[in-house]
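input
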Amino acid sequence: MNRTQLTGRLTSDPTLHSTANGTSVCSLRIAVENMARGETGFIDVAVFGNPGEAAARVLSKGWLVAVDGRLDQHSWETDEGQKRSAISVIGNVEFLAAPRNATAGQEPAAA
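output
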C-alpha cells in the first residue's frame, strides 16, 4: 500500500502548469510540523486536473491544507555527477483554513 495523509501550511503560492498532453498540474509545497524529532518537514505535492486548477485559483501562501495521495520518488544526477532523489505526494488537496487576516487568493495583511 502506498498512501499518505498530511496536514500543513503552504510555503508559497501554488503554480499551475500543463503536461505534454494538456493535463493541468498544480504544484504545491507544504510545511508539516513535527515530521522528525520535532522538526518541520517540507513536502512537494502535485494535484492534477480540475482539482489542481481549483487549488491554483483559490490557495495562496499560508493556507492550511490536508493532502491525501501516494508517494512518488524521482531520481536525477547533478552536473557534478552526484546522485539525488526526492519524494513528493501525488494526490488531492483539501482547503482547511485561510491564512490569518486574509481571504481566499489574497496575501495576509501586513502587521
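quick obs: The mean pLDDT is 90.
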